[in-house]
Amino acid sequence: MPEAVIEVVNLIKNYGTVQAVRGVSFEVGEGEVFGLLGPNGAGKTSTVEILEGLRRPDGGTVRVCGLDPERDNDRLKQEAGAVLQSTSLPDKLRVEEALRLFAGFYQRRADTEELLRRFQLVDKRHAYYHDLSGGQKQRLALAMALVNDPRVLFLDEPTSGLDPQVRREIYSIIEELRQGKKTILLTTHYIEEAERLCDRVAIIDHGQVIALGSPRDLKTSEAGTTRIEVRLARPEPNGALSGLDAVSDLHEFDGTYVLHSTQVPQTIVALVKHLEAGGNELQALEIATPSLEDVFIELTGRRLRE
Amino acid sequence: MSATLSLTAVRMRLALRNRAFIFFSVIMPLGFLFFFFLVFGRGGPIAVQYLLAAVLALSVMGSFWGLSVQLISFREQGVLRRFRLTPIGPGPLLASSILSNYMLTIPTVIIEYVAARWLFGMQHWGNLPSAIVLVTVGSASFSALGLIVASVTNSLQETQVINNILWSIFFFLSGATIPLPVFPIWIQHAAFYLPATYLVSGLERALVMNTGLVGTAPDTFALVASVIVAFEVSRRLFRWEPEEKVSSRAKVWVLVAVIPFLIMGAVESHSKRQVVQMQQIFHAIAPNGLSFTGPGPTHASSRSSARACSPASPPGRRDLSDSQKSRSVNRISMVVPLARRSPRGLPDRILPYPAVPDIPSTARHRSPGSARS
Known about the structure:
The complex is a heterodimer.
Chain A: E1 4-15, E2 18-29, E3 33-37, H1 44-51, E4 59-64, H2 73-79, E5 80-83, H3 95-103, H4 112-118, H5 134-145, E6 152-156, H6 164-179, E7 183-188, H7 191-197, E8 200-205, E9 208-213, H8 215-222, E10 226-232, E11 247-253, E12 256-261, H9 264-278, E13 282-288, H10 292-300
Parallel strand pairs in A: 3-7, 3-8, 5-6, 6-7
Antiparallel strand pairs in A: 1-2, 1-4, 8-9, 10-12, 10-13, 11-12
Helix pairs in contact in A: 5-6, 8-10
Chain B: H1 2-16, H2 19-40, H3 45-61, H4 63-77, H5 79-84, H6 90-118, H7 128-152, H8 156-173, H9 185-191, H10 195-208, H11 217-237, H12 248-271, H13 273-285, H14 299-308, H15 322-325, H16 368-372
Helix pairs in contact in B: 1-6, 2-3, 2-6, 3-6, 3-7, 3-10, 4-7, 4-8, 6-7, 7-8, 7-10, 7-11, 10-11, 10-13, 11-12
């Protein structure tokens, strides 16, 4: 992995008796897009806010660009950009004014004209903030996070509450930033977002990292099984298919058999042989690659948005 | 510094785009001006001079209301949270509040001054340096107070409750609306524990008695102390997020903000200087005290009194004609009746002190001492 821009070691954060973050550790390399994926209340936002220096950790160490977010907060703010949840701007502030005002707070400044163009806000440069649509507000928030040409970008649920079309617009922007080699830490509870945008993902639940790796690795190694759905001409006796090679689990649902296989080719070969031997016939077969949602269910026993 | 200035410029623009701001900061103060002058200011140019001090003080005092509401709204909406991500701290944000408020107060003050002079026959500008300094430090002081209110309250509703209480106290007990000399002496002394009273008393002397910077120094000092302490306290109490609560330790800072006024109030209670001067000015303007009915001036008398004071006379040295010295001309007509009066029409619970000798003749044509003799 390239040089770590973000280092989190055994991070702990408590709110009274509630343990929001319980020993979270991860590293994010230069130019990497790293996702914290988990349900609401998992500890994602607390982790990000500690990294931004907005909250004080109760234990562990964090470094961003080699800086302690608490002690070197002023220097860190020069290096970081952020889109946080529940932030706003004054209603009667114009788009261009907002960008110029915020750019003026930093030593290093991006070209605000270029930001307006890049985020398709040129036509809206004189619009008041309260007249912008949800997507335009979020594009402005992203543009404002870049006014200091930051080395690292924190995006806390950047597409939360946006409709699917606007969400895809934001994905395109983040993909563009990814190509620009910005280091990005992204929190989300959207599986699609993590799979599409992140180089690596940490699945976080109840304040702990329960899995960490690239989306592809997680899907193959963490869940460890692939779902094979088959429909047969005649029903098979109970448990007959569970003994096939590499089958770890079997369910029957409305005439469809769902086999969880750790080695898909072996299971298919064994299935075909078994059906031929028994004079049964295969009517339909579907192999479903596991999603991160499946990984999450596998690891926690519940769905992501429960 | 540049961040403070750019924030100040943006906040001025935001205020000017806000109809509520225009109403409360421009239209309402001008409403006060016309109401005061048309209803109470018929007693002649000196009465206008006296009332202008009150109107200016009310315009300046209103700062705390607007700024406290703005700051808490910014906090509740998440605007402060967005600013928190930038390298600027609370200092520039708060300083820009005070600066932008001051810059926006200036046009209102100028309009009030000009209206008093050209529409209502005010004869001279008073002591402008004193008035400018008092308006400046007064604006900063009440702005900082508003920032403290926003920092110690957790919601807009709480802010409005505190604002209403403070505004009522300042409105009625500073001398801006009801002249302090009509109150019992203990209330007059208690009033000098309020920052608002220093603003009113200073402006009264600057405008009516033409008192210079040295003469208004105690008032200026009280307001400057208030600015420094209130700004520092508001900086320490500042909260970016709605869920951040005021810590117990922070609440002690609110008490610190009160200390200058406890000291100033105690000094004033001991010296009685300001109380006496306010009484003298009031009795110079309204020897009849406040009267609901009685021999009041007509517009004709008002106009004649305005004419009697030559515009060419230098400020502060305008001798009053005999007609002006009569009670019917130089009085403030006000709808608040006095419960008890002395036989000569003066409130009988004031003036336990001898007159201060440095009152200029313009304002002392009917001194409290002579009233009682």
